[in-house]
Amino acid sequence: MTTRMDITARRKPANVVLYVVCILLAILSILPFWIMFANATRSTYQVQQQAISLIPSSYLLDNLKVLSGKTFDPIVGFINSLIISTGATFCAVYFSTLTAYALVAYSWRMRQPFFTVIMAVMMIPTQVTSIGFYQFMYRLHMTNNFLALILPSIAAPATVFFMRQYMLPTLSLDMVASARIDGAGEFRIFNSFVIPVMKPAMATQAIFTFVTSWNSLFMPMILLTRKENYTMPIMVSLLKGDIYKTEYGAVYLALAMSVLPLLVVYFILSKYIIAGVALGSVKE
């Protein structure tokens, strides 16, 4: 008869292989970021001689001086990107959750056609509507205005779909009805009861939305034409130098500055990812 010790002994080699594979995958995931941060501390000559190096150098301040000597200020671009990404993330996550709540908690005649329209909007590429959107913003005198990049995030069909799918098995409509009987208003129910239940999904979508907004280049380059309004992706795209020399150390430093906030946001909210994507794990 097989004992528990025999079963444990058989599982040990499998666990060792699993740990080794996980460690290798972790190293492969971290390695590109480490090379980028290491190159940010190296000179252009060192990067040209050896593009891949794991050892940091001592040219970080020199690269920062080169980057600061451009016609734009990278610190201002960093702050601009942070403002736009934070505002867009809040608008997309909060109002998408509110829309999903309306689709789940209320029974109204046009609910299913409304959801179908939301799904249809997901198939329209951003580039198709960019010309009309720019003309609309121009007529409203909202070019070179951060609100032109923040407010449209309220309409995020993919986020609405994700929130609705998460809310269907998770949200207890009986608890919502009990709160209404107790006299709570709809916004109080949403802010005090629904949002705590939706935290895993909201945190997951906050990561995706923040990363997408931070890396966005197409629409900001169209709407933001003043140098003081440039975002970090626009500044990185302009770091081509002249026709004779490109400061690769400064380019890597700008890329590192662009990636750093994304890593911070991911590490803060990453614990919610598994809970957020495991939609089928909740049973009533």
How would you describe this structure to a colleague?
With 284 residues, the chain is mostly helical. It has 2 domains: 4-64, no CATH class; 70-281, MetI-like (MetI-like fold, Orthogonal Bundle), CATH 1.10.3720.10. The protein is built from 15 helices and no strands. The chain is globular and about 70 Å long.
Question: How are the secondary structure elements laid out?
Answer:
Layout: H1 4-39, H2 44-49, H3 60-68, H4 74-105, H5 111-121, H6 126-139, H7 147-150, H8 157-170, H9 173-181, H10 186-197, H11 199-215, H12 218-223, H13 232-237, H14 248-269, H15 273-277
Helix pairs in contact: 1-14, 3-14, 4-8, 4-11, 5-8, 11-14
Fraction of helical residues:
over 70%
- Count of β-strands: 0
Report the span from N to C terminus.
Answer: 39 Å
Mind telling me which CATH architecture of the largest domain this is?
A: Orthogonal Bundle
Find the CATH topology of the largest domain: MetI-like fold
| Share of β-strand residues | under 5%
